[in-house]
């Protein structure tokens, strides 16, 4: 009883302390929304449905406001015309310090900017050039081979074991996870007979499921077996093991060499860095692959247009050969597929909710366009929230609808989007913004295109009847592409030339 009373009194004094000592809005600062729960502030409402919560605050307080979320004061900039003011202030509004601290905490490595590894952060940034330009051609060609091997094997083996003649049935997200995890991993990290990628994927999925809580700073000790699973995932990437893997891509080789140069970097830390990169490389690409295929097979007109485009670029002959031998689809050919690219962009517009976060380095006054400016405090966070732009009915007509050709105009990529008669520069931001944009974005776009191409060249697909539409798992809002919350089954049958003849007979 005495103990309960002490806890109760402690809670009341904490509440009173927070009420009297908590932050007050100063002149020139944006409207401040703190909620009544000390420390947590508006965290629960934000987590429940961030888009709805922020739109409501925008209606009440205008385009810029500060919200207390889990101990952090976050100033949201909700108007895309103001984004450039934030993006160009890289010095006072820093991204790398935030990502280093969040990533080192979540993946459990010593922060790169801890002072122990001079120059490493710059070297890491430079290594990202190996994900574009001529090196992207190599990655693309390697990915193409792996996708064909994995998909051929998958389709042919399910055909053999199939019982209902032509059509097979499978769960769509599981299919995407299985194919994209293996192919992306092998393309980046190489291969070895000893690797058990199914187990790695299972552990990755468990860790990834808890990831939003780690990012929300919930102590890992409270998260069941997460710590154990994270250690297992890190152990997978120990340098001695990685040295045995054949043909890793140049980007991963460069990172291995780079880490080797730092005596201060322990093997465990090196492994944790490689694990973090794997997470970055598959964590968003897999759900993105799901939404691309899902939207295409949900919309016959889109599926037909994209399939016709793929066949016209790749050629009927290659289509017929794809079950016999590896065909090539070059990076240049992928660039010609405007309908496919638009479908992927449209899927990303509808499913990506990545907050663009910057940490205020010093107290300063941020000019927002010609009209006004706001005072910001050191260590506060400034966040762009592109989902509000992605779903803005003034920019995108019927924003909730998937329109495969939304980003096509006169047979080319459409880049002109308007709000109140003014051209919007940042109309689509699944990969972040400015200098901190995702360095893997070119590879990711190519992978997604290749995945759709090879899948559609190899088989016909349909959604199974009588099921709910796929819905987004909003609990991951802010962290990238949201996965589906419900299971979706689809039917497929291979397009082997022999099979078509058999069917016609
Ligand atoms: C559809 C797939 C992908 C999406 C939507 C995506 C999205 C993002 C976003 C939003 C960021 C943060 C950028 C910012 O806040 O300004 C990011 C960072 C990053 N992404 Fe991606 N990404 C994808 C695929 C990939 C792939 C395939 C790779 C690697 C091969 C990759 C590697 C990275 C890395 C290393 C960072 C951190 C960069 C840094 O800290 O400087 N991403 N990504």
UniProtKB/TrEMBL annotation:
Q: Which UniProt keywords apply?
A: Cholesterol metabolism, Endoplasmic reticulum, Heme, Iron, Lipid metabolism, Membrane, Metal-binding, Monooxygenase, Oxidoreductase, Signal, Steroid metabolism, Sterol metabolism
Give me the residues that bind substrate, please.
105, 284
Q: Which GO terms describe its biological process?
A: bile acid biosynthetic process; cholesterol homeostasis; cholesterol metabolic process
Binding positions for heme per the UniProt entry: 438
Q: Which domain of life is it from?
A: Eukaryota
Gene3D superfamilies, alphabetized: Cytochrome P450
Q: Which positions make up the signal peptide?
A: 1-28
Q: What is this protein called?
A: 25-hydroxycholesterol 7-alpha-hydroxylase-like
């Amino acid at each position: 009883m005495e103990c309960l009373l002490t806890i109760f009194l402690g809670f009341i004094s904490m509440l009173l302390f927070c009420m009297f000592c908590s932050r007050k809005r100063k002149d020139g600062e944006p409207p401040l929304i703190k909620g009544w729960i000390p420390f947590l502030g508006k965290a629960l409402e934000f987590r429940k449905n961030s888009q709805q919560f922020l739109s409501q605050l925008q209606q009440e307080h205008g385009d810029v406001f500060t919200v207390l979320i889990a101990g952090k004061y976050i100033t949201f900039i909700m108007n895309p015309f103001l984004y450039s003011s934030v993006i160009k202030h890289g010095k006072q509004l820093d991204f790398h310090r935030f990502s280093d601290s969040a990533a080192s905490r979540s993946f459990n490595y010593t922060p790169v900017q801890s002072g122990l590894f001079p120059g490493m952060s710059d070297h890491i940034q430079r290594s990202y050039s190996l994900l574009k330009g001529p090196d992207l051609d190599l990655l693309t060609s390697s990915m193409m081979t792996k996708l064909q091997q994995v998909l051929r094997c998958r389709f042919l083996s399910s055909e053999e074991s199939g019982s209902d003649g032509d059509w097979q049935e499978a769960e769509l997200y599981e299919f995407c996870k299985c194919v994209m995890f293996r192919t992306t991993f092998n393309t980046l990290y190489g291969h070895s007979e000893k690797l058990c990628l199914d187990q790695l994927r299972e552990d990755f999925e468990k860790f990834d499921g808890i990831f939003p809580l780690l990012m929300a700073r919930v102590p890992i000790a409270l998260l069941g077996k997460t710590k154990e699973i994270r250690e297992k995932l890190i152990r997978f990437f120990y340098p001695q093991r990685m040295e045995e893997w054949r043909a890793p891509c140049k980007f991963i080789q460069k990172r291995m060499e780079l880490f080797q140069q730092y005596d201060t970097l322990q093997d465990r830390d090196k492994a944790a860095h490689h694990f973090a990169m794997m997470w970055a490389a598959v964590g968003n690409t897999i759900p993105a692959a799901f939404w691309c295929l899902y939207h295409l097979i949900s919309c016959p007109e889109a599926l037909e247009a994209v399939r016709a485009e793929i066949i016209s670029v790749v050629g009927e002959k290659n289509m017929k050969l794809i079950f016999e031998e590896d065909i090539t689809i070059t990076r240049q050919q992928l660039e010609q597929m405007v309908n496919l690219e638009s479908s992927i962009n449209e899927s990303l517009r509808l499913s990506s909710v990545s907050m663009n976060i910057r940490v205020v380095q010093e107290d300063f006054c941020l000019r927002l366009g010609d009209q006004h400016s706001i005072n910001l405090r050191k260590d506060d966070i400034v966040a762009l929230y592109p989902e509000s732009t992605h779903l803005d009915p003034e920019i995108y007509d019927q924003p909730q609808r998937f329109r495969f050709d939304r980003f096509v105009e006169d047979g080319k990529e459409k880049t002109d989007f308007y709000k109140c008669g003014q051209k919007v520069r940042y109309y689509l931001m699944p990969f972040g913004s400015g200098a901190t944009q995702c360095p893997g974005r070119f590879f990711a776009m190519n992978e997604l295109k290749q995945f759709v191409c090879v899948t559609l060249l190899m088989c016909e697909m349909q959604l199974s009847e009588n099921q709910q539409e796929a819905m987004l798992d909003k609990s991951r809002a802010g962290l990238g592409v949201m996965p589906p919350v419900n299971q979706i089954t689809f039917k497929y049958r291979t397009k082997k030339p022999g099979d078509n003849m058999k069917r016609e007979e």
